[in-house]
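We store amino acids, tokens; thus:
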Amino acid sequence: MKKLSLYKYRSIFIVLFWLALIGSYVFAVLPSDIAPHVPNVSDKAHHVFTFVILGLLLRLAYRINYWYALLVLVTYGVSIEISQYFLPTRFADYNDVVADLIGAFLGLKLYKYLRRVV
């Protein structure tokens, strides 16, 4: 059976990555009373899930190596926390960066698994 080339859909993944990146930033800086809230799900789970998606889409959209992708995603997570530090309705938390790192790691590993299977 012939393997599917994921890079065939690169332009779609690029659009999805940028939509996810911009959307996650907008939700991160919205005032907490306006920001969407999923009941019974912790804030850290939101961070992990978001960065799993971002990590997967980043590698599907661009041909960059694992370590560079991890650096990009962690830098993005830190920049979100820096932005939140200066917002009166948000607060920065280093545990969010740890959750972002875990999510990015899982997303990048998921990409590696998909490349072997698909």
In short: The CA atoms of residues 48 and 103 lie 4 Å apart.
